[in-house]
Design goal:
Elements: H1 25-33, E1 43-47, H2 53-60, E2 65-69, H3 73-86, E3 91-93, H4 97-100, E4 109-114, H5 123-136, E5 137-148, H6 156-169, H7 177-193, H8 197-201, H9 204-213, H10 217-224, H11 234-241, E6 247-251, H12 265-272, H13 277-288, E7 292-298, H14 306-315, E8 317-320, E9 330-333, E10 336-339, H15 342-352, E11 358-359, H16 360-366, H17 373-385, E12 389-391, H18 395-415, E13 424-427, E14 432-435, H19 438-448, H20 454-468, E15 473-474, E16 477-478, H21 482-506
């Protein structure tokens, strides 16, 4: 009998994360910043969607027709349940790449995304995906792909092999993956603690192992303990994708576009002297010790003239999705933490603090005496990377997406009654998600069942928490008495009404 898992961890579910890079709306600003034309996305596909949070948010919060697969039937079942609740029409399957990629009923796609898949599958599956991209990605279509890469994983690769080999050979059969992970981590710490020469030659490895031990076991199972695991250099990735006529455009991680926070002047000059675009990426990975790449590739790159590029950037609308009071004028790049210039960032933040969408042209005109166009583009890139701003869809799309997004959000808020599984809600204004804690989702649920005042929302949440034996944390410590917990919930409910709720309503998250 064949193993349907193909060596991939299947006895513990993947995390319920939302990944903003998968949102096709983010393509536009990244491409324009790189001077390349972008496609309008009407059909999209996600390969290996995990629990399906991202694909369901993007299907419900847009009018794009989404298709996707994940081999794990439990994960696919959850994703299908979300799609059914939203009524988004997303076509989600629990098929292997071999079966899904050969389906005759799939359309050609404007966009295909793979997040956290490529490094953890076999060469056979990589070949299937590369062929799928060749056959099903339209001319002008975009691929988003993320993967572990060299040289950042060079020192860790032997340690990962040690962990997985211990889990396979020394783990107690029948105990499940989590005890085997714990035992492997303990064993690896013991090995390094003996004064192993490997640890002396690679002093950062012990710290990395300590950090790994603090991470959720569900994440570790899928990150480190699959049979297949292949950190790949950029040049090898290029080799895989060249047959599909794909060209590299830029990073999907917006901070990678800002050289000043990632590269020294000498490194920037050296890269500028390398004529080949792809070789520049290989060299850059050495400069920053890249561990994880998030890349956009396109089938047929079309360079824009500077005037056309700037004209289209000016038409891009953005919206602030967090309270202005919580924004810190700092950014962290490879070179460390940097201060953001208050005289430049402050006016942009103040203008957008009403959480209404504005085009970069509108912002430029309003601030023309204080912020240049070049400065404004960088401000928007950095604030978007920090999840302060998000790109905005056209008004007709927002209108059409509002109903399915609200239906999905009601489903997610219902799930929050029992757990903090999903910490995101769909925002039709942006076609993506906005972060929302379990308590915030329960406040929305209380509103949805007809409770009007914040005190009533707090009472509703308190009853749920008490019933389940859950305690609220304040400053990292549990509130042990029900009176303290209710008082804190009422404070949070009033703050939610005054600060977060207006933002969520503007984004179309709730009515």
């Amino acid at each position: 009998m064949s193993d349907w898992t193909e060596g991939y961890v299947a006895d513990i579910g993947y995390t319920y994360g939302y990944y903003a890079e998968l949102n096709p709306q983010r393509i536009k600003l990244a491409f324009l910043n790189s001077g390349v034309a972008f496609p309008e996305v009407g059909t999209a596909c996600e390969l290996g969607f995990g629990q399906g949070v991202s694909i369901n948010v993007h299907a419900a919060a847009s009018v794009t027709r989404w298709h996707g697969t994940d081999f794990n039937p439990a994960q696919a079942g959850f994703a299908q349940e979300l799609a059914g609740a939203a009524g988004s029409g997303a076509q989600l399957f629990d098929e292997s790449f071999e079966i899904f990629c050969k389906r005759p009923d799939l359309p050609d796609f404007d966009y295909i995304g793979l997040h956290g898949i490529w490094s953890w599958i076999s060469d056979e599956n990589r070949a299937l995906i590369a062929d799928f991209l060749r056959r099903k990605l339209k001319v002008g279509g975009v691929l988003y792909i993320s993967y572990n890469t060299q040289p950042g994983w060079a020192a860790m690769a032997p340690l990962r092999d040690l962990l997985t080999e211990h889990a396979e050979l020394m783990g107690v059969p029948g105990t499940g993956i989590v005890p085997r992970i714990d035992a492997s981590l303990a064993f690896a710490q013991k090995v390094l603690g003996t004064g192993a020469q490997f640890a002396r030659a690679n002093p950062q490895v012990e710290k990395r192992l300590e950090q790994i031990g603090k991470q959720p076991r569900a994440y570790l199972a899928h990150e480190y303990f699959n049979r297949d695991w292949m950190p790949m250099s950029f040049s090898r990735m290029q080799g895989w994708l060249s047959g599909a006529k794909l060209s590299y455009v830029c990073s999907a991680h917006y901070l990678d576009h800002i050289d000043a926070i990632n590269l020294s002047a000498e490194q920037q000059q050296m890269l500028a002297e390398i004529p080949d675009r792809n070789f520049r990426e290989t060299v850059r990975d050495f400069f920053v010790n890249q561990q994880f790449r998030r890349d956009y590739w396109v089938r047929g790159a079309r360079t824009l003239a500077p005037f056309e590029r700037n004209e289209q950037i000016r038409m891009q609308r953005v919206v602030m999705v967090v309270p202005a009071s919580g924004i810190k004028l700092k950014v962290t790049g490879v070179l460390g933490e940097a201060e953001l210039t208050a005289d430049i960032y402050g006016p942009v933040i103040d203008l957008l603090a009403d959480h209404q969408p504005r085009s970069l042209l509108e912002i430029e005109h309003a601030l023309r005496e204080r912020v240049s166009f070049v400065q404004l583009v960088q401000v928007v890139m950095i604030l978007t990377a920090q999840a302060v701003l998000q790109p905005v869809q056209d008004e007709a799309t927002v209108t059409d997406a509002r109903a399915p997004a609200i239906r999905l959000n009601r489903k997610l808020c219902g799930i929050a009654r029992a757990s903090s599984t999903v910490a995101a809600l769909a925002a039709p204004l942006t076609g993506g998600a906005v972060a929302a804690s379990r308590i915030e989702q329960l406040f929305l649920l209380a509103r949805d069942i007809g409770l009007v005042e914040p005190e009533a929302w707090a009472d509703y949440v308190q009853a749920l928490l008490v019933q389940q034996g859950h305690q609220l944390l304040k400053e990292g410590k549990p509130l042990t008495s029900q009176e303290e917990q209710l008082a804190e919930l009422r404070i949070q409910a009033r703050d939610f009404r005054d600060t977060r709720l207006p933002i969520l309503r503007n984004l179309g998250v709730c009515a």
